[in-house]
Design brief:
By secondary structure, the chain is mainly α. 75% of the residues lie in helices and 0% in strands. It contains eight helices and no strands.
Length: 252
């Protein structure tokens, strides 16, 4: 799922902080700028994940309403099905944005390890001594596999969920029968529920990464402050006296 279409104004409010920042981090030559950008992006990414999770939950609830309508009436009006297609397409966009965030934050971890040896040596509380980069990759793989499994159960493929065009094409095919519509609604509801849970996990990873970043920054600043204090103490100290003792006398 590599498409980059942003369909939701809510979820794309801070898109630059995630999918766009990955390349910025690799291009910043100034280490101080890198750190500042990462700190500000962390806050934006956290807000973005929250909004994406809320949107996924809204779509999940809406699809359940449509599913109940279809069960009770055995059909959905065309204008209602149009709303279903829009919600499912926004759901596809949510999946893409989550993947973009995980890639971006993993990239930030890799850049920090390349730039700062002290950060590379930082011990985290991640299981099996993993890096954040590998943890994001694991999250991404799990998310993709879960979605693929859900689609497969409905005789669909992940490729049919890849792009807006493919998604809409598969939905139009399913809309030809009540059974196909119900299947699309059920799959969408399941994927939306999965995304709510996955966004919570992703937010936990980002929060943990930013916490560890804060610990590292505090340690770095402490070392700098200590070195500065020692320099000031050295230059303020009184030079040892060169006078005193007996004077040398010349005797004839």
């Amino acid at each position: 799922m590599t498409a980059t279409i942003a369909l939701s104004p809510i979820a794309s409010a801070h898109a630059g902080s995630a999918t766009g920042a990955a390349t910025e981090w690799t291009q910043l030559a100034n280490n101080a700028q890198l750190i500042d950008l990462l700190k500000s992006s962390g806050i934006q990414v956290d807000n973005q994940i929250t909004q994406i999770g809320q949107l996924a939950e809204q779509i999940q609830n809406q699809l359940k309403i449509y599913e109940n309508m279809l069960q009770n009436t055995a059909q959905l009006p065309d204008h209602i099905w149009g709303q279903v297609e829009g919600d499912l397409n926004r759901l596809r966009s949510i999946v893409e944005q989550g993947q973009g965030i995980s890639f971006s934050m993993a990239n930030a971890d890799d850049v920090m390890k390349q730039r700062f040896k002290s950060y590379a040596d930082l011990k985290t509380y991640l299981p099996n001594a993993e890096s954040f980069s590998s943890s994001y990759q694991s999250w991404s793989d799990t998310n993709r596999d879960t979605i693929a499994g859900t689609l497969k159960a409905a005789s669909l493929t992940a490729a049919q969920f890849d792009s807006e065009e493919d998604t809409m094409s598969s939905l139009r095919g399913m809309s030809e029968s009540a059974d196909g519509k119900m299947k699309a609604l059920q799959v969408g509801h399941q994927i939306a529920a999965q995304q709510v849970a996955q966004m919570q996990k992703l937010r936990g990873l980002v929060s943990q990464q930013m916490t560890m970043m804060g610990i590292w920054l505090q340690s770095e600043q402490t070392d700098k402050d200590l070195a500065q204090a020692r320099r000031e103490q050295f230059f303020k100290s009184t030079a040892p006296s060169t006078s005193g003792g007996e004077k040398m006398k010349v005797e004839w």
